[in-house]
Amino acid sequence: MDPMDIVGKSKEDASLPKATMTKIIKEMLPADVRVARDAQDLLIECCVEFINLISSEANEVCNKEDKRTIAPEHVLKALQVLGFGEYVEEVYAAYEQHKYETMQDSQRSVKMNSGAEMTEEEAAAEQQRMFAEARARMNGGVSVPQPEQLEETQQTSLQS
Predict the structure, then answer these.
(1) Given 8, 91, 101, 120, which residue has the most CB atoms within 10 angstroms?
(2) Tens of pLDDT along 71-104?
(3) pLDDT on residue 117
(4) C-beta of residue 130 within 8 angstroms of C-beta of residue 105
């Protein structure tokens, strides 16, 4: 692929975030497997090329239908055309999950921004719940007790 194939951008401008990609690569491998930096860079370049390939084919599918906006069904059709048909079901499931999560986020946002204000206590409780969810995600789903939780546990056991 020519460095200027991506309209108006040099090849260096079209990349994926290295930290995110490195995290994804490491999550997909067993803990005892290490990946050389050159191999990580190569995998990232392969991902960029794959995205370019799918995007280009989806654009062709879209143009054949006289559409101006690439829709998810164009991407799914592009996967079929390029010989990645066995992944269509999994990609579609991921798309549906994304739609669901986006809808949940927007409903949560509307609920938070609606006329019904939260009390300070409710807001603090919601904030703590969100912090706990974030900690759980950061710890791979393992809930790690926070200092205030440890104090509560200790006070409860002392009272017993």
Answers:
(1) 91
(2) 999 999 999 999 999 999 999 999 999 999 988 8
(3) 72
(4) no
Determine which helix (DSSP H) or strand (DSSP E) holds 102, and give its type and residue range: helix 88-113
Q: What angle do CA 13, 17, 23 make, to 5 degrees?
A: 155
Terminal C-alpha separation, the chain: 71
Residue with tokens 């739609």: 99
- Give SS3 for 156: helix
Question: Do 118 and 107 touch, CB atoms closer than 8 A?
Answer: no
Q: Report the half-sphere exposure of 13 (CA within 13 A, side-chain side).
A: 8
- The string of pLDDT tens digits covering residues 42-63 is 999 999 999 999 999 999 999 9
Does 3 have pLDDT greater than 50?
A: no
Report the alpha-carbon distance of residue 71 to residue 61 in Å, rounded: 10
The structure's pTM equals 0.58
Overall residue count recorded for the chain in this entry: 160
Token pair listed for 42: 């190569």
Distance of CA 43 to the CA centre of its chain: 18
Task: Report yes or no: 91 and 79 within 8 Å, Cβ to Cβ.
Answer: yes
Hey, is 103 helix, strand or coil?
A: helix
pLDDT attached to residue 136: 81
For residue 137, what is the enclosing H or E element? helix 120-138
